[in-house]
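Key result, reporting period 2: structure in, sequence out.
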């Protein structure tokens, strides 16, 4: 059995510091005034404007129209992240279920066609996707923000591999019990897939939460801005001799990090179990 050495702890501590230091600097900097940050740069000391900055960011209306708050952008990011994750899971599970349990021609070929879409990131198909959403009058809508991102080869691949590992005896037993395809899916596959669903949900939520390019194209109405979009907008505002609200941008960045971190910390056990084990 390998015995842990002091050098191992030192490497782990250095790795933790490397990961935590940028977050700590962003948080400390957000507690200072924008003018102080502009003149002195990033801060490692505690400022006196923590409550003022975070209250202003969350409750005070701002932006070019003066109608959007940080809380509104936080809500929009939640809607995008949750809708993105749930939609991907539903589509991926149904696609994998059809590929694994239904006998039809070109099933394997269909899977590999889906799999090759991993080679086509959003940036490649962003113009036609935007054109379709524009023609359907779905710009500045939650539907337009979420639906074009739902097709997922990654989720389909994970669920396909998981369903293929389900023993055939379960399917035979369900058939003997008189269960049809719908009942087998709801009563058998769905319960034993819950750890896998939890793991995929966390991955997809974080991916959807961090989306920047697609919301930037799809939203011109500030009431649909996400946190990622809001941070960029604050840094772009230079009015006369004034400077951007660096402290508010850092505060928004810290707020943007909290939900994904909390989600991973709270469901860490499910996340690891979903990727390494199963309930079969």
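The corresponding designed sequence is given below.
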């Amino acid at each position: 059995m390998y015995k842990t050495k002091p050098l191992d702890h030192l490497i782990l501590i250095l790795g933790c510091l490397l990961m935590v230091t940028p977050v700590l600097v962003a948080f400390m900097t957000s507690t200072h005034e924008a003018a102080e940050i502009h003149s002195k740069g990033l801060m490692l000391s505690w400022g006196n404007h923590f409550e003022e900055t975070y209250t202003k960011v969350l409750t005070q209306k701002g932006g070019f129209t003066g109608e959007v708050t940080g809380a509104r952008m936080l809500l929009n990011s939640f809607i995008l992240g949750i809708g993105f994750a749930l939609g991907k899971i539903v589509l991926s599970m149904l696609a994998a279920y059809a590929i694994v349990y239904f006998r039809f021609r070109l099933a394997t070929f269909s899977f590999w066609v889906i799999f090759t879409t991993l080679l086509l990131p959003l940036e490649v198909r962003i113009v036609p996707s935007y054109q379709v959403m524009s023609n359907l009058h779905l710009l500045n809508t939650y539907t337009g923000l979420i639906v074009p991102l739902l097709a997922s080869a990654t989720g389909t691949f994970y669920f396909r591999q998981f369903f293929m590992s389900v023993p055939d005896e379960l399917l035979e037993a369900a058939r003997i019990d008189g269960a049809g395809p719908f009942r087998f899916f709801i009563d058998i596959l769905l319960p034993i897939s819950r750890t896998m669903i939890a793991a995929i949900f966390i991955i997809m939520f974080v991916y959807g939460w961090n989306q920047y390019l697609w919301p930037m194209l799809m939203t011109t109405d500030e009431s649909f801005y996400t946190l990622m979009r809001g941070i960029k907008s604050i840094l772009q505002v230079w009015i006369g001799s004034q400077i951007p609200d660096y402290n508010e941008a850092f505060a928004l960045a810290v707020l943007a990090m909290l939900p994904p971190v909390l989600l991973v910390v709270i469901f860490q056990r499910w996340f690891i179990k979903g990727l390494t084990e199963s309930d079969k």
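The first helix runs from residue 6 to 30. The chain is about 70% helix and 0% strand. This case is discussed further under Risks and Mitigation.
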